[in-house]
Amino acid sequence: xxxxxxxxxxxxxxHHCHGVTTGELDRAAFESLITESDWDAPEGxxxxxxxxxxxxxxxxxxxxxxxxxxxxxxxxxRRRELGGAEVSRRLLRATGISDYFIEIGHRADEILEPAExxxxxxxxxxxxxxxxxxAEELVIDGIRPDEFRSAYARLLDERLRRAIGxxxxxxxxxxxxxxxxxxxxxxxxxxxxxxxxxADGTSPLDGDVRLDDPVIIRHLLWAAxxxxxxxxxxxxxxxxDVDLHRCNPLLLTEFLRQTRASGARVMLLHCYPFHRxxxxxxxxxxxxxxDVGLAINYTGSRSDEIIAExxxxxxxxxxxxxxxxxxxxxxxxxGALLFRRxxxxxxxTFSERDGWPAGERSRVTELIAWRNARRAYRLDxxxxxxxxxxxxxxxxxxxxxxxxxLAQETS
Amino acid sequence: xxxxxxxxxxxxxxHHCHGVTTGELDRAAFESLITESDWDAPEGxxxxxxxxxxxxxxxxxxxxxxxxxxxxxxxxxRRRELGGAEVSRRLLRATGISDYFIEIGHRADEILEPAExxxxxxxxxxxxxxxxxxAEELVIDGIRPDEFRSAYARLLDERLRRAIGxxxxxxxxxxxxxxxxxxxxxxxxxxxxxxxxxADGTSPLDGDVRLDDPVIIRHLLWAAxxxxxxxxxxxxxxxxDVDLHRCNPLLLTEFLRQTRASGARVMLLHCYPFHRxxxxxxxxxxxxxxDVGLAINYTGSRSDEIIAExxxxxxxxxxxxxxxxxxxxxxxxxGALLFRRxxxxxxxTFSERDGWPAGERSRVTELIAWRNARRAYRLDxxxxxxxxxxxxxxxxxxxxxxxxxLAQETS
Amino acid sequence: xxxxxxxxxxxxxxHHCHGVTTGELDRAAFESLITESDWDAPEGxxxxxxxxxxxxxxxxxxxxxxxxxxxxxxxxxRRRELGGAEVSRRLLRATGISDYFIEIGHRADEILEPAExxxxxxxxxxxxxxxxxxAEELVIDGIRPDEFRSAYARLLDERLRRAIGxxxxxxxxxxxxxxxxxxxxxxxxxxxxxxxxxADGTSPLDGDVRLDDPVIIRHLLWAAxxxxxxxxxxxxxxxxDVDLHRCNPLLLTEFLRQTRASGARVMLLHCYPFHRxxxxxxxxxxxxxxDVGLAINYTGSRSDEIIAExxxxxxxxxxxxxxxxxxxxxxxxxGALLFRRxxxxxxxTFSERDGWPAGERSRVTELIAWRNARRAYRLDxxxxxxxxxxxxxxxxxxxxxxxxxLAQETS
Lengths: 411, 411, 411
What we know:
The structure is a homotrimer of 411-residue chains. Chain A has 411 residues and is of the alpha/beta class. Helices cover 42% and strands 11% of the residues of chain A. Chain A has helices at 27-33, 51-60, 72-82, 84-93, 114-121, 131-140, 148-160, 170-173, 185-197, 214-226, 253-259, 275-284, 295-299, 303-309, 329-354, 358-376, and strands at residues 12-17, 97-104, 124-130, 165-168, 230-235, 265-270, 288-290, 385-386, 406-407. A 7-stranded parallel beta sheet of chain A has the order 1-2-3-4-5-6-7, with helices on both faces. A two-stranded antiparallel ribbon of chain A has the order 8-9. Chains A and B meet through helix 2, helix 13 and helix 14 of A and helix 11, helix 12, helix 15 and helix 16 of B.
């Protein structure tokens, strides 16, 4: 371990993000990527008049060769001038992110694949599988209800040969106040039959397969528990489709009790405004980890406080970094920049108050920046990664893998 | 727009307050106005030993010609010496509030009418109608159940010719976890019949008309939605009659989804301690606005932090100013003073961290101080106001209206 | 009242703590005492890598003669070298705690009795009775169901001749969303019969008597209300047995309404992360008090913010100090040290912002440090205390009582 790792310089492992887009974005398209709202800003207003909008003008504009606080118009004009690929390359490569854990399966046609992300960011990329999407794929492919459980088991096993974790959006589909226990196979079979046939007895079409049956989603979760996976849960802040009051991580308490000894690890994503609740769970449950991704880039000048609030009850070995960026390269950039700054300021404050030694600051920095995720995801046991670039999260050189290929993890 | 508006000098539009009292207040009466408790402080203690009590002694005492931190006894003696009318005039006129949006219908006999408020404060005054009170008035006036819906529609339309918005206290009466959808006319008729006749088949008296039927309250809300009103909701902090855990604004999520395209705008009032939740709703729903009134004057020396916490997820064009003052002129004064200070400190912090330019600080200041409310309440479309004084929220002179008269909005 | 009491020097009344252990602790035993988790830290990690762990190394190490930030190994070696009794004596006596209110009845065989605590800490000690344990004792002793109510009444009265308050762990056993009203005697008798006989009709053994029947627990609470007791409630943060989302103090709102005029006082313990909600209840209900014990020592370098957050809506005459320490002497030490520091910093901030005079800072300090608890628990009316030492909470000398004896309260 280096003895003077600082938040400004430490490599970051982004354990939860999506792909970037390299497309050319008009103003409406760009604005839609810098808000969790799925509506335009009201007439006469703009999504740029937000913490994230100001942070883009302040911190991303210079990366594109503009003055800080260039106007939104100037920024977007310059973005078009450079082109989406160049903008993404610049913004991603300035993040110091060495590893991206990328959720696949959400609007995949609009964003880069993991291998392409690795190229664009000069970093390694790993896959996270969205459980609900996996099940939906089977239905789209015409699975017979009585074959669902076995087919799902095979498909999950196959994907886990490549992916280093799974994610559930139970929060969106059924709320986190779901019945925590494992459903019986009979219950699952009945629910699958109902889902696959649809209400009118006909086969559903692609657009109709949205899985929101609690029995089936519980089956997907317990299949992941049985495989001792790293399981990410959407928690807290998200778009207008979520019932935020049903996304409090405390609602998972009984599920966490039942899975404590399973070998599975549970990663609570985002968590704002329930990050203190998440910190409590990370203290009392040995297999619980959490981050405040999304809330960091979206709170901009206020992110220091959010980050400091995560450093209360949670053990330092349970806190993770993520950007939860999707689409706009600016979100990865700000996620990393603001996280580095916020962690630095928190550590500075703790040093002023309590004289934290430089070595301990450095150690805590590395834990949160990448070591915790590496341990929790058992990355050193992984036999493969979609990888490129030459700097591993541990600061040592690693051999370049061919972009998109499966290269052995070397560190 | 002026280019150097600062929180200290900008005119304020107080989009949610009540009337002031100009009566002579003994100690018990004054103490009851500076707490949300409806009980005396325990023996040997005083409601002055609170953040708001200290803030009154610090900031209001000098306005009355006393030293800062005069004792409670000295303060109240001086208050009596000057008289309630003079005290109110001094404290209100020092607020820099140019426009009061005044809720009528709550303990109206104890406080000034909007026109009188305009006089006392040298400002314009506008009316906000309390929906539940409107319905109760019909019942007090002996409405026949089968005439309720049509009479209510006529009464609401009539009041909306004068009022610029409505308020619901559903939080107090039924909790915010009410069924969000529009009730059928049959459901409403049945509920009204039950309410009007009372349980024993007799006509209710004035004291018995308290409306707490969820079907009827939903009818009132949807009538306001149909008229594309600005609808204020009591949220969060209030007195001991409220079940605060049923006042979380997230409980309105489905109602907000259903009303998103209606043209109605929803103003979440107070919100503490759920102001971060309110900020989320203000981001994801295009028609949602919020403030942290009441919590500002009541948290005194801690209000800086509350105000800063509102500047996280919420777009800057969705945050409003209010005092939620009732009765004591001190509460308007502190609401304005502490809001100005807290906003200034937040902006200073953002400038230190991220170099927010003066022009942007000024623009955000004006948005929150008055522009957002003006836009959201469609004040420029209003044909009338109960108005007096000569300074409009836009800083330009406006013609004096006769106090209490309906004068055309000129700016 | 002294006119210059500062948080650094004021005596503290710790209104909620448990006994200390003077046993020799190996690493596993010590680590288990500095977390609310009942599991070991994951392999490769340690419970020392937490705010409380860092605070121990920073602040307790020097009390044991080590440099600040000695390693965990050095700290534990030194602890063994000095011996558990000497370590406890040193750490407790440096707290400046003059009075311990000690809950008895939780793992009593592992920790010191109140009289021994008084000796170890050179302070006075008072007993708090755990209601659920009292009822369980009757069952262990073979009470006949039809005698339960009368026997419980006698036992409670007997214990209250010695104890100065009671505590309920309803939060753990039934959640705070219990039916608030008083159960009928018939309901209680039926529930007791069911509990005592067990499901199979046999008498329960010691290990089986865990009381989690809501009717019986409500009976215990109302018996305490009838006696106008000081009633402590576990709220918020605790170990993994708690459903934290059912420990929000707002869930007690209706119970608080019903008990408002009873003469009972309600002390909300811990409260984190619901301390703002607790502050609201302390404002609107005249008989509600609260603290943020446990969260202070466990948040270490972040405790300043937690303490400041308690100073918002709550009247200054409703806030209490507690450590909620159990077992490890370090937790009392940090509870006191961090509380003093956090209160000082909050008062300094308020003075910078609003010029709080020294006399008022001093007055607020004494209220929170000990005067509020003395008033709320009616300590001056108490005829006895388990006591030792010579410094009372009021700073005057008091006669030594014999350790373990009942000595008259003299101040």
